[in-house]
Design brief:
With about 260 residues, the protein is of the alpha/beta class. It has a single domain, classed as Ribonuclease Z/Hydroxyacylglutathione hydrolase-like (Metallo-beta-lactamase, Chain A, 4-Layer Sandwich), CATH 3.60.15.10. It is about 25% helix and about 25% strand. It contains eight helices and twelve strands. It has a six-stranded mixed β-sheet with strand order 1-2-3-4-5-6. A hairpin with a 2-residue loop joins β8 and β9. It is globular. About 50% of the residues are buried. Bound molecules: zinc ion. The site of zinc ion (ZN) has 6 residues, from α4. It comes from Nocardioides zeae. This is MBL fold metallo-hydrolase. Keywords: Hydrolase, Metal-binding, Zinc.
Length: about 260
Amino acid sequence: MRVHHAVAGVLRPRFAARAICHVLVVEHEAGLVLVDAGFGTADLADPRRLGPMGRALRPDRDPSTTALAAVLALGFSAEAVTHVVLTHLDFDHAGGLSDFPHAVVHTTAEEWAAATVATHAPERLRYKPVQWATTSDVRRYAGAGEPWRHDLTGHEVLPGITLVPMVGHTRGHAIVAVEGDDGLVVHAGDAAFDASAYGARHATTGKPLRRVPPMRAFEVAASRQPWRIRGNHAALRRLQEAEGVTVVNAHDPRVFPGEA
Ligand SMILES: [Zn+2]
């Protein structure tokens, strides 16, 4: 499968480094598959729908920084996107759903429950149901799934695309692995904010990455279960070190191939 990398949001918080919303656009036999959806055109047109946390992240209001713009730039129509696989439903990952209302959405059952039956006050701030109000087909995957790699388990949601639960950032967070033409591409979502945490190298220069303390602090502050962060970083490091595997995360622009 051909895997494209796209920027679906640029964040400029005052309290942390500039960040991006990194999404994958996968050419699959079932149509185009997005891994994460970033911000949508409606979010950037009216950031008030993101609430106070959205304002704090200060996304660029540039419609070229959406998954929809990336799909069009690749020469496809919005309708070509038939599936969206989400690492989680935070508003900086699920906003693009409203640009692809016909797409089938895949997420963990635990994440769907957290986002739709949010009883925990901070969860009401992070999830914005308006973003998936036009989505009609949501496939939910409960529990651990089947043994996958190392000690991880997962749900193969489409041939060659596996949703691997990695809880911590949210109650139902997962990473998403795609068997690409050039090896396995793993989208770690928000299981690491600073890609130096799992030993990634700069996508362009190949150099080791420096630690970014404000991003580490923000990661802890934004985590539902911060005690899981260290173990998740270790799991990502094992994946990153395996032959033929590339791990990218959602927000660190240094692991984005090309200019971000
Ligand atoms: Zn995020």
